[in-house]
Each structure stands twice: as structure tokens, then as C-alpha cells.
Amino acid sequence: MNDLIHHRRILGSRGLRRFRVLLSLETKMILMGSLVLSIGGAILVFSFEFSNPNTLGPMSLSEKVINSIFTSMSTRTAGFNSFNMAQSYDYTNMICAFLLFIGGGPASTAGGIKITTFVLAILMIFNHIKGRDNISFFGREIPYNIGVRAMVILILSIFIIGIIVLATLFIEYSHAEESHYFSHLIFDAISAFGTNGMSTGISQEISDITKILFSFAMFIGRLGPMTLALLLAGSQKSVEYRFFQEKVRIG
Q1: What would the pLDDT profile of 47-72 be if each residue is shown by its tens digit?
Q2: CA distance 121 to 116
Q3: Which end of the chain is least crowded, N or C, by CB within 10 Å?
Q4: What is the pLDDT of residue 176?
Q5: Is 110 helix (H, G, I), strand (E, B) or coil?
Q6: Do residues 75 and 24 make contact, with C-beta atoms less than 8 angstroms apart?
Q7: Alpha carbon distance 125, 180 (integer Å)
Q8: Please, what is the end-to-end C-alpha distance for the chain in angstroms?
Q9: Average pLDDT of span 65-88
Q10: DSSP character at residue 87
Q11: What angle in degrees, to the nearest 10, is found between the helix axes of 144-174 and 115-129?
């Protein structure tokens, strides 16, 4: 909508008015990322669950295609599911958890680290592999500090989810009265961080401590890892001096 309102040109030709929408780099990145994730996720869900008798197995071919696309897109937005996620295979749950982790577009109500963050992190990795010091996409150069921030958000989010998953597994396997599937706990933990709502149905069975932990994960996921880190760090002050640089070996 922002591009439709602020990035349009009106071309007059013999009294006719035509509209040409000029998409911003952010819009192109969101559209391209959404298209790749939606199609890729739908293909994987369709392939993995094609013969599963508890999910897509009994459906017709057209129903399988529609439900695969619906599931792929819903993992990054609404959180609806057209079949029981508790009955799907573990690798399907991991694919959906990955999509839950990425989420939707920036400045939207969707959760996750956001599509632009994921795309920028991938671009930064590939540009460094190619020996480039800049980040470019669709003929535009992206400020390097934005790429660094995207990498920080990605790594910080993975670190937070790792702690939440480890804490969840420790609580449920050592103190809970009944055990749950490993993939189900991971799926629901990432879904809580992504504030998506999709679940394998174990929410009513997990312990109260795990529910509090998931609520904390929802708070962090909604607030944003980067925002939380900046709040904990306090106000930024300008640095009046800098130390000498010294290189260290990595890898």
C-alpha cells in the first residue's frame, strides 16, 4: 500500500491516465522472500505428508495441493492449520517450525524475525563468501550496518530459542508427569517465540512452569530480540575514543 500511495507515476497519453507502480527495495524483498518461502514450504509439506494417512493421505490431489499451500502460508501469518500437526511427521514439523521462526513482513502483526531480516542475513553471508564488503539486492546497495543488525537479530533469536528449547526439554523430561514428543516441544516453543498460535496440541498437557516459559517466549518474540537487547543495554552514549585495532584469526 505504501508503494501504491507514494511510489506511483501517472503517465498521460492522449487523455488516458495509466498507473505504473514503482516498488521499493523493501517491498521487492518481502514479495520475493514470501514467494520463495511459500512455494518452497508448500512443496516440502506436500512431499512429506503426501502419503501420511493422518494428514494429507486421504485427500484428493487438489485438496493436497491447496492444504499444503495453506499450511505453508499460515505458518508465517495466521497460525491456522487444516490438519492435525500432532499427526504430521517430525520433519514436516521442523519445516513448519523454520517458517514460524522467519515469520512475516516488517511492521506487520506477524511474528518471527521477519522476512527482510532473514533475507538480509542470507545476502550478507553470501556476499562475504564471495569476498564482497557491500550488500546489494535488485540493483541497490543496502547499508552495511543494517546487514549487521539483521545478523545480530538472527543470532540472538537462535540463541534465545536454544535456551527456551533446552529449558523446556529439561522441565518436561525431568519434572513433568508425562513425556511428550521431542519435535512437538520444539515446534510449540518456536511457535510461542513467533507468536503464531499454531500448536501440536500439547499446550494443555505441559507443566505450569513450561507455560510460564512459553509466555515469556511470546513476550520476547512480540517485543523483538533486538529491542529487548537495546532496552537491557540502556541508552547509547557516543564513544569519545577508540582502541587500536588488532586482527585475530577465525575459522
Answers
A1: 999 989 988 988 999 999 999 999 99
A2: 8
A3: C
A4: 60
A5: coil
A6: no
A7: 36
A8: 44
A9: 88
A10: G
A11: 110
